[in-house]
Design a protein that fits this description.
- The protein has helices at about 10-25, 45-60, 105-120, 160-165; strands spanning about 5-10, 35-40, 65, 95-105, 125-130, 145-150, 155-160, 170-174.
- With about 170 residues, it is of the alpha/beta class.
- The strands form two sheets. A five-stranded parallel β-sheet has the order 3-2-4-5-6, with helices on both faces. A three-stranded antiparallel β-sheet has the order 1-8-7.
- The N and C termini lie close together (about 5 Å).
Length: about 170
């Protein structure tokens, strides 16, 4: 797979995370009853950054957890445990903000919603993504988007985060 081009560098990723955080605060009129759940793997560090930015903006802690959606995916024949999931709070009656790196078909978001609802009945579920590349197979739309990037089906998006990859970037491969 040959690298086509860098779409977002570290500064652009940082600006997108900050913008999403501001939009979350504005739409929800603060951070009361909000919790952030990052989808493993790259949604988790992005979610942590959003939770930290919300704390900086609103001066109060926003509960943060991580979610392994593997057992809830419709393309996995064997269900395995979600031992990587760490949600140390109740989602019941909370405004849950799911965070993922890329939305494509919508199937990962659907799996995440199923996993959250299994843990309780949230007041609402909102979706924040760094990149929206289109091509939905399900009627799911993110509430917060860092960058809209229309792609062809054959192109690939690679999100890198410092916590896992040593740098922040979004690359388009074709």
């Amino acid at each position: 797979m040959e690298k086509k081009r860098i779409i977002m560098d570290d500064k652009a990723v940082g600006r997108a995370v900050a913008r999403i955080s501001y939009e979350i605060t504005e739409r929800n009129k603060g951070t009361e009853d909000i919790c952030i759940i990052g989808i493993i793997s790259r949604g988790a560090p992005l979610g942590r950054r959003i939770a930290d930015k919300l704390k900086e903006l609103e001066k109060n802690d926003v509960p943060f957890g991580t979610l392994d959606i593997t057992p809830y995916r419709d393309d996995v024949s064997e269900t395995v445990g979600d031992e990587k999931t760490d949600i140390p709070f109740s989602v019941t009656d909370k405004k849950v903000i799911l965070v993922d790196d890329v939305i494509f078909t919508g199937r990962s978001a659907r799996a995440a919603i199923d996993a959250v609802i299994k843990r309780g009945r949230p007041r609402s579920v909102q979706l924040a993504v760094l990149v929206d590349r289109g091509h939905r197979e399900l009627p799911i739309r993110p509430d917060y988007v860092g960058k809209n990037l229309p792609t062809s089906h054959s192109e690939k998006i690679k999100v890198s985060v410092t916590e896992l990859d040593g740098l922040d970037s979004v690359a388009l491969y074709g």
